[in-house]
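Support request, please re-run this one:
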Amino acid sequence: MSLSRRTSVAIAGAVATVAALTSCSAHAPGTTAGGSGSGKKTFVVGYSQSNNAEPYRAQLNAQLEYFVTKYPDLKLLPITDAHQDSATQVSQVQNFIQQKVDVLILSPNEPAPLTAAVQQACTAHIPVIVLDRTVNTDCYTSFIGGDNYKIGKLAGEAAMQALPQGGNVAELQGTLSDQPQIDRDKGFRDAIAGHHITIVYHQEAKWLKANATAITQRWLAQGKKIDLVYGENDDMALGAVLAARGAGKADGIRFVGIDGLAIPTGGIRAVQLGQMYTTFIYPTGAQQAADTAEAIAHGKSVSKHQTLQTTRITKDNAAAVYKQYDMSGRIG
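Re-run finished. Output below.
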């Protein structure tokens, strides 16, 4: 049996197990804090993260932990890390369902494998907040995320500004099955179409700097001219910067990314320092997730789809935007 087939079978088996465990019991929201006599409810929140290796996701985790503390009646369980493995994440979601959390937050590693798990949470009457990445069902309470197609298109327009006479682009792609990757790729390609810009290289780097560095090193060694590198997140764009520096070619290449984290090693600072040409804010959605979890816990209606806005980062606004988004004084 192939690896993909074994993974599919494992995921299907895990979801079936959850169905058996949850089909006979209704979800009872909230636990009583301080014993049965206090009458004060604590609402338990579980968050399944696709991976903690990306700086964006590490920042999301830290911000969510911070914003949840603003609501004393919310208790966030330890955030789980799926390590970019969908079968692992299904198991983690299944565990949250078995614990009967009051709200489940999920950043899916991939849409298809996590869809059935979300449906099982829905069957168990557990409200689900889908954060950043989509699933192939509408059986969730709220989706929170940016418009990845729009951001990809803005990145393509930035590439056109950087290369007014046209040129060669190398594209570092996230996990190919992830909807943000699909949308950021399509938006970029739609924007540059007909503008004498050619994507001469493109490869999956799975959102990770180390992968992007190794891939870009191989591209540069082949000798084909690269005028601009489009990293579908800043971590990959910065990995390309490392490779280009090592090859002595960084000065002749523009680097475009997405995420715009206000951390010392993030995209905003890289633009400010001239390491990257531009990047785009992709908000973590952590504050909105905490606010939405609190509203759900108290039976309030929430928007089915919450679209977060972006900002383009240039040298002119980098310092101000960094200050606006900097949370270093509030989170570790």
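Confidence is low (pLDDT under 50) at residues 1-28, 32-38. Residues 296 and 302 are 7 Å apart (CA to CA).
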